[in-house]
Amino acid sequence: MTSDGLSFPIFNQSCSSLLCRHLTVQLFEQLKDRVTENGFTLAKVINSGVVNQDSGVGVYAGDAASYDLFSPLFDPIIADYHGFSKTDKHRSDLSLEKLSAPDPDPDGNFILSTRIRVGRNVANIPLGPALTKEQRNSVEAQVSRALQNLTGKLAGTYYPLSGMEETVRRQLIADHFLFKAGDRFLDAAGLNRDWPEGRGIFHNRDKTFLVWVNEEDQLRIISMQQGGDIEAVFSRLINAVKEIEKSVTFMFDPRLGYLTSCPTNLGTAMRASVHIRLPKLGNDMETFKKITDAAHLQIRGIDGEHSETKSDIFDISNKRRLGVTEVDCVQDMYNGVAALIKREKEL
Ligand code: ADP
Ligand code: DAR
Asked: What confidence tens digit (pLDDT) does each residue in 229-243 have?
């Protein structure tokens, strides 16, 4: 039994998460009494995957120390998900000139919109699952202050979720700009505590540069626009990250890169996506998935993670985030999208 009273969890037969796959009784016994300086325990690391047995991964970190103290569980999960071994080292590279991604759909026949986001967390405090309410509110104050000092095309306004008109909130979500209220996976990870206090969204006038504050990570820095000008979207993101980093120090580990609450986002914490209409490929998902698998891409629904694909529009994004650079992530997405458009035209 862990220090906070958890016995070895019973996983049902259908559980296929990386947690189920890697948490043995021996490992549980080895880790059950460990607690980080922020009070994060094994029970808290695994709670989301115990409560939601349909998880894909099932674990979250409460602080930087979690990735070290619970490394006998996190490392095999990270190796399994990212193909990243204990001896590998992450390398960051935000050099726009190394990207080769001319608009793959200049006539606008397929790509509705392009979005590139990175997750970031503030250094020297816990991650979301272990933040106190006071710490979370302090992050909101510090980050919103830094954002409201941005100038030029990044200039904008911060809108706290507390007090936001419900119609405004729903419209921002419908327009794909704002996060939904935390799902059951985030809830069981402790990421929805005190919701909506301390959460909000910053965006510039054109809503092409946005920052989510205190959702799954303390910052989700987002660049997005209509169409397929991937290089323009990446250029804006690079500029935004560099400007924010002048006044906010991000949590970074020499081996794991930018640290995030969910291990799937470690490294670059980048997801580069397009919303793309592919009616013919949509009727041949076997071919569709062969192309996305070969290009290390993921297919999602267009209304956020865990949403169903509807009509013939798909959210296509890079799957690799750790052990690859930011340029690699965007190049992965570009190469795969170009291959999908080529195949769609051939059908
Ligand atoms: P993430 O973890 O990257 O935030 P989600 O799948 O939860 O991913 O998407 C968050 C929001 O961003 C959703 O509203 C989704 O519709 C929107 N979104 C993601 N990619 C794009 C895109 N290429 N164009 C427009 N909206 C997008
Ligand atoms: N609850 C997680 C989701 C994994 C990746 N998505 C994130 N981090 N939003 C799961 O184990 O399914």
From this structure: 999 999 999 999 999
